[in-house]
Specification:
Chain lengths: 189, 104
């Protein structure tokens, strides 16, 4: 019986799960956690310059806030936008944000990469490393917009709402970020 | 920024986007996340300090307000209190332990 309830929850859309979370349903909350924790973990990883220790704390803090602020969620707004807005604010509030970012280059170089076996894989891994480095080297506002739009696949209006800037500004940042990354990648190849 | 300008740059960046997706997927797979939500559970079990203070105050007030019944008025009790030199006139109620008697 309990299993069938859990299976039903798995099929529900985010907004409906959040409505249940609003009523204090822990199971619906856990389904949302399963659905988003890893994705948000990856987002934190990139936003916090691959500080893996910090990521775990941030994911936990984020979902604690989801529970605490569950009454503030409005179904008219997509849950993912609401969640990313909270995640983005957490990153902004993080006191180590700038310090970590500045020390990124050294940490990125030391980061363990999965062992590559063929020449093709080695080359691909090197491309991944260069891309990570290029994204982290972007100015903060460009990088934030870039990650939210291209990595997390949020729309430009959603990104604009989250970062608190006009859509035109976000588009300019995206174009500048793309141009800078392509230039950086070309220089390193 | 013109929509067309951004679209043009994006159209020229398809390879970059493919690479970006690979990096994202790799990051998302390797990232360590907490297996559950222990902090939330801890929070829900935490005792609110205000309740603790309120319970203490209530206990104190009730302790004073409720009249003690079945006070010991025997000669022995008053004698023992007299022996200890206490002059409060307070005698033992049921459940109280007369340490003076225990020592003797």
């Amino acid at each position: 019986m309990r299993k069938s309830i859990a299976d039903t929850l798995l099929t529900l859309p985010d907004a409906e799960l959040m409505q249940r979370v609003g009523l204090g349903n822990h199971e619906a909350y856990e389904v949302l956690y399963e659905r988003y924790a890893r994705r948000l973990g990856g987002f934190f990883l990139r936003m916090l310059a691959y500080d893996t220790v910090k990521v775990e704390d941030m994911v936990q803090e984020l979902f604690t806030r989801v529970w605490q602020h569950r009454a503030g969620y409005r179904a008219a707004q997509p849950f993912s936008t609401w969640l990313y807005a909270m995640a983005y604010n957490l990153c902004k509030n993080d006191y180590r944000h700038e310090v970590v970012r500045q020390s990124y280059t050294a940490e990125c170089m030391l980061r363990e990469e999965p062992v590559a076996t063929t020449d093709e894989t080695i080359e691909r891994k090197e491309m991944h490393r260069l891309l990570r480095k290029a994204v982290q080297a972007l100015p903060e506002l460009q990088r934030d917009a870039f990650l939210l739009h291209y990595d997390e696949e949020l729309t430009v209006p959603e990104v604009a709402r989250i970062v608190g800037s006009p859509e035109g500004t976000v588009k300019s940042r995206l174009a500048a970020a793309l141009t800078a990354i392509k230039k950086q990648m070309k220089m390193n190849l | 920024m013109n929509d067309d300008e951004l679209k043009k740059i994006e159209q020229e960046s398809t390879e970059l986007f493919a690479l970006l997706r690979e990096v994202r997927d790799e990051d998302n797979v390797t990232v360590r996340i907490p297996p559950s939500l222990p902090r939330l559970n801890k929070k829900s079990l935490r005792i609110n300090p205000y309740w603790l203070v309120a319970a203490s105050v209530l206990g104190f007030v009730l302790g004073i307000a409720i009249p003690r019944e079945n006070r010991c008025t025997s000669q022995e009790c008053t004698t023992q209190f007299a022996d200890t030199g206490h002059t409060t006139g307070r005698s033992l109620a049921d459940g109280d332990v007369n340490f003076v008697l225990l020592i003797k």
